[in-house]
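Structure tokens please, single chain.
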Amino acid sequence: MNCLRTAFALVLVFAGSLLAQPTTPMYLNQKPPGMVPVVFAPDLVSLKDHYEYGSVFSKDGKEFYYAVIINKKPQIRCIRFEQNAWTAPKTVIGSDKYEYNDPFLSPDEKRLYFISDRAVDGKGEKKDFDIWYIERTKDGWSNEPITAGPAINTDKNEYYMSFTKTGTMYFSSNGGTNATTDKNYDIRFSPYAGGKFQPGRKVADAVNTEHYEADVFVSPDENYIIFCAERPDGLGAGDLYISFKSKTGAWQKAKNMGKVINTDSYEFCPFVTPDGKYLFFSRSGDIFWVDAAVINSLR
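Here you go.
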């Protein structure tokens, strides 16, 4: 009997310790949205006197990265959950000379990717936009950006990236265009193998057209992609489109995500949270979020 009492007491102690563990108030303590997009964290992130866009949460929900324009130069900021509370926004990387935006974490979250017009040496005149990254260290993030390499970057612009769970990067580029076609950005992908990215290839014509396609988010299982496009049949200056993979693994013809998401404004920078619950995107200088059920409604 004493053994049973002791065991029962240990169970109660263990259960109590679990209940005492601090939990992360998800999504900066914001009230979850429904099926209509709303501004995300208007009192902390989406401020009236700033232009914010492009955002990503870490897998554990304890880090939120986004871009904000300060003194006409975009910089990347982060809000962290530390000591059982959310911190104030802190700049991860910024400059009074170069632009830094479109943050995205690598699948293992050891790298923070972004785009920048910085010179290769970080000192010269700004150039076209390339994809770069910094590495996580025990003290935060490394200071010196590293280029994603020639398999990704060209002598033209590369925008916005996201990753499958196997490390394949999806991004957009107008590489290979000329003066008359340089507005024709296409969605590309580059598998990661042998410690480096393989030469980027264009996604099928079911996604790419002769118009502008950029800002692509790929689901980790590579089942769908959401991207921004400027097309004559769009609802506004730029709309979000979605393409699902068929049972044979081919991308199906991309469709406009409709009036639930798109307006006569410009919608861009899509991101679906790691738990699959919410779709984030940017519009008119603010970051919005909506229940990710809108994605399944379009299948």
